[in-house]
Design brief:
Blueprint (H helix, E strand, L loop, with lengths): L1 E6 L2 E6 L26 H7 L8 E4 L4 E6 L6 E2 L4 E7 L2 E6 L4 E6 L6 E2 L4 E5 L1
């Protein structure tokens, strides 16, 4: 059976094989190990979002995932395309680069938090 799946605006066509319940190779779903972090529902992520100061320039998250590290501090100067954070999504780590230059005025998230695509990570002065 073919299915079309869209993930973050990108469409994928996949083949799916349906297994019979009594087939010898079919297995029952198993619970995830306790060490695997569970995704937060969107409402939980939105509740943690801090408001951005009026007129402030921000560096947004390019994707949804877990913020592994935020590698900037208040007062630090950053340049365009400078690595500023690492986000993990679907077991892949992505380096986030600054989309603007300036001095970090305020951090809006902390390492270990779930972030969504477009969510501001920090403000620039």
């Amino acid at each position: 059976m073919k299915l079309k799946i869209t993930v973050q605006g990108v469409a994928y066509e996949v083949d799916v094989e349906v297994l019979e319940e009594d087939a010898p190779h079919a297995s029952k779903p198993q619970a995830l190990p306790q060490s695997v972090p569970q995704a937060l529902p969107p409402s939980a992520v939105e509740q943690k979002t801090q408001p951005v100061s009026a007129g402030a320039s921000v560096v947004p998250s390019p994707l949804s995932g877990l913020l592994v590290s935020l590698d900037v501090a208040v007062g630090q100067k950053v340049a365009v395309n400078e690595p500023v954070a690492v986000i993990e999504a679907m077991k892949m780590r992505t380096t986030v680069v600054s989309t603007a230059s300036g001095q970090v005025a305020r951090l809006l998230v902390a390492s270990g938090e779930a972030v969504r695509e477009g969510q501001p990570l920090f403000e620039l002065a």
